[in-house]
Amino acid sequence: MSKTSLAVDHLRGFAILGVLAFHSSIAYLSSQPPSALPFDSPPYGWAANPIVDADRWIGFDLFCAFQFLYLMQLMFFLSGLFVRPSLERKGAGAFLYDRFLRLGVPFVLGTYVLMPLAYYPVYRVTAVDPSASAFWWHWTALPFWPSGPMWFLWFLLALNLVSAGMHRVVPPLGEFLARLSGNGGAEPGRFFIALVCVSALAYLPLAAVFSPWQWVELGPFSLQPGLGPQYVLYFFAGLAVGTHGLERGLLGSDGMLARRWAFWLAGAIASFLLWIVPTALIVKGQGARLPGLQIVADLGVVLFAASACFGMAALFVRFAGARRPFFDSVSENAYGIYLFHYVFVIWTQYLLLGVALPAVAKGVIVFAVTLALSWAATVAMCRIPIGARLMRGKRRELARGT
User: Fold this and answer.
1) pLDDT (tens digit, 9 = 90+) per residue, 257-311?
2) ∠177-165-158 over CA atoms, to 5°?
3) Exposed (0-12), middle (13-18) or buried (19+): which is 161, by Cβ within 10 Å?
4) Which of 31, 57, 167, 330 could pair with 359 in a Cys bridge, judged by C-beta atoms 3.0 to 4.6 Å apart?
């Protein structure tokens, strides 16, 4: 495995840990509703805020905002990196079979098996009849089927289908995307500016209608209409970088991005402030006196997502290109950890309700328990051949350099 491929693999594992930390903290946000949300009443806010704990810490609000505004863009970018090499090696037919197996099957099993298990304690918090049979009756009466974090799988599968179709119908398009990212190794700033400009064109009009945290649901399919186009853009940005080649492009271990990692991280912090300061003024009701404040905040979202993705990629390419046992193991089991984690997050938060502990301690406990149990469940599932195929297939592809 090349140095850059190993760094990308470690970054992927780190991103999954970020998802776990984000979900582990949500119950303890100071901006949470004052009490648990009703299970049967629109707008079904418990789907985004499953457990509401009385213990809060505003530091979790800042941490979750930081993660929320860039983490999924980073995951879609990383997911796109190896699409084109995999298509060229396998062909469209075998590639699609593999994607349906590794994304479609876990989406169905995760949505229809794991998610009812995960959300059962959410129902119990406000239920008159907490029995499993009563929960199932209320669950199936909902106007949608909550999929939780599984939404990422169906959306990623759809993008892979589009990529395979493009590869089959318009083969030169891949080379065109590669040329667009070709100067990224020597001039990452130009790639960054192009990404920000296109992202702003996709995001700003929708931001006038949808908030970043707004969801729409259709059956088991959930989507953030405000951020969805950004996810598409970052996926294809990753596809372009991967088509050009990891070592000789934007993510080259000796490229300008890696060498200026501190600059990109500083830019991420500055752009986060560009979002949070006007957002705080708007929330406090002072935005009406400052015209254009919402546009500044929306531009902050776009700039922060791009600079944070560049900063994290630069940091890992610069420093995480060597074998590290912990990150190697996390990366190897990252997909399974993602699939299982929501069950353990919600149940642990539920069991900690009423326990006299500070919010920080509860968040740390939830994260530690979730990581340990999700990791153990993944290792156990991977002892079965089909489990290893579903959860560790990408690790083997990375090892082959694809």
Assistant:
1) 999 999 999 999 999 999 999 988 888 776 656 678 889 999 999 999 999 999 9
2) 95
3) middle
4) 57
Residues with Cβ within 8 Å of 305's Cβ and at least 6 positions away in sequence, in order, are 69, 70, 73, 199, 230, 234
Residue, of 182 and 46, whose pLDDT is higher: 46
Both tokens of 270, joined, read: 């500055």
Q: With H, G, I as helix, E, B as strand and everything else as coil, classify residue 223.
A: strand
Query: Which residue is associated with the tokens 């062909």?
Result: 91
Q: What are phi and psi of 290, to 5 degrees?
A: -125, 90
What is the CB neighbour count within 10 angstroms for residue 174?
Answer: 21
Tell me the one-letter amino acid at 21. A
Q: What are the beta bridge partners of residue 218?
A: 221
Burial degree of 131 (CB within 10 A; 0-12, 13-18, 19+): exposed
The rounded mean pLDDT for the chain is 90
What's the CA gap between 112 and 37, in Å, rounded?
Answer: 23
Residue listed under structure tokens 């592809």: 397
**Of 265, 329, 354, nearest in space to 66 by CA:** 265
Q: Which residue has the higher pLDDT, 399 or 192?
A: 192
User: At 211, is the pLDDT very low, low, confident or very high (cuts 50, 70, 90)?
Assistant: confident
Determine the residue type at 330. V
Q: How many residues are recorded in the chain? A: 402
- Side-chain half-sphere CA neighbours of 355 within 13 A: 16
Tell me the domain boundaries of the chain.
Answer: 3-399
Q: How far is CA 6 from CA 1, 46, 78, in A?
A: 6, 38, 12
pTM: 0.93
Q: What is the DSSP letter of 111?
A: I
* DSSP code of residue 387: H
Residue from 29, 28, 48, 26 nearest 37 by CA: 48
Report how far residue 6's alpha carbon sits from residue 246's, in angstroms, rounded to the nearest whole number. 11
Determine phi and psi for 221, rounding to 5 degrees. -100, 115
